[in-house]
Amino acid sequence: MKIATIGTGFIVERFLDAVGQVEGVECYGVYSRTGEKARKLADEFGIVMTFTDMDRMMEDTNYDTVYVASPNSLHYDYVKRALENGKHVICEKPFTSTLRELEELIALSKKRGLFLFEAITTIHLPHFKKIRENLGKIGELKVAQSNYSQYSSRYDKLKAGESPNVFNLEFSGGALSDLNIYNLHFMIGLFGGPKEISYVPNRHANGVDTSGVSVLDYEGFFATCVGSKDTASENFVLLQGDEGYIHVKGAANTIDSIEIHAGEENETIDLGQNPNNMVAELEAFVKIFEAGDGNEALKLLDHSATVMKFLEAARKSAGILYPADEK
Questions:
Q1: Nearest to 9 by CA among 209, 229, 120, 164
Q2: How many angstroms separate the Cα of 289 from the Cα of each of 2, 107, 219, 283, 304?
Q3: What is the pTM of this model?
Q4: What is the pLDDT of residue 25?
Q5: Distance, C-alpha 105 to centroid of its chain
Q6: Structural domains of the chain, ranges and CATH numbers in brackets
Q7: What whole-number distance in Å separates Cα of residue 51 and Cα of residue 295?
């Protein structure tokens, strides 16, 4: 797998660090509208090629996969262009602004016979798989809670009157799409789609959600998902059954370690996961790519589409609308 990246933010740096740790993948080039930013990123990671012209990048045949890490609202257009130019795609979360956009991209990837992946760390982490294996130990699930709260430096800019992309509805921003989506991937990855979903946000004067609580109504239990960019907190997941509970240390996108409390037995699982939580997802994508495993790729897309369905429903339940909703 030979990759060209779109974007120059910290998430791209983390992705390129993961590329350097995973066999079977390399970065061919980086794109930025600003040549200086592209060259700085390329130099940092020993990458030769830089692009400032999107058409030139897409037409280059020396690589096969595009990694998209642009502002959320641009994901759809960049992914579509890449697919139309015969490139496989890894796209940062949230995949798109709306379910309709994602369904169109999935259909296009199938038509062109190309792989399309969502770069979502949660479901690929070794600890997530251990949670699934051990769920039966806590009996019948009654309550599920998750909290991913991380005070954003860009929130200070928002309070100062600026409009950072992540806090701008024009760019499909907000705490639900930026942080709480990891909680949704966690819950839906374990339990599937809920019967209903709702979202109660704290909103800035510009209408964007800076924090909020989503409630997922499953048959027999509720799951609450807290995502906050205007406060900090200890991040955790708690899965509570009638015979015990599982305590996840760390946010749903890292799952640092797991404590299983079942009856008189207490067990801690710490597999020593890679500090870069993007390594596991990239290893999964490379494995699928090298094996040409279309069925496994479609399973991941089905999961992403389910998450997008309920992410959009949660957002609209709070009256939060993006420009893409009007298309």
A1: 164
A2: 11, 18, 36, 10, 18
A3: 0.97
A4: 98
A5: 17
A6: 2-114 (3.40.50.720), 125-273 (3.30.360.10)
A7: 33
Q: Are strands 141-149 and 221-228 parallel, antiparallel or unpaired?
A: parallel
Asked if the model's pLDDT at residue 190 lies above 90, the reply is yes
pLDDT at 327 over 90: no
Sheet architecture: strand order including 65-68: 49-51, 26-31, 2-6, 65-68, 88-92, 116-119
Find tokens 């027999």 and name the residue: 220
Say if strands 2-6 and 65-68 run parallel, antiparallel, or are unpaired.
parallel
d(CA 164, CA 70): 13
Whole-Å CA distances, 283 to 20, 122, 268, 270, 286: 11, 13, 25, 20, 5
Residue bearing tokens 């409630």? 215
Closest to 67 in 3D by CA, of 37, 102, 93, 98: 93
Give per-residue pLDDT as tens, 258-272. Answer: 999 998 889 999 999
Cβ partners under 8 Å of residue 174, min gap 6: 166, 167, 201, 208, 209, 210, 315, 320
- 196-217 in b/e burial notation, b at 16+ Cβ within 10 A? ebebebebbeeebbbbbbbbbe
Length of the chain: 327
pLDDT at 73: 97
Closest Cα to residue 150, out of 253, 270, 42? 253
Summarize the confidence of residues 8-23 as an average pLDDT: 96
Tens digits of per-residue pLDDT, 94-110? 999 999 999 999 999 99
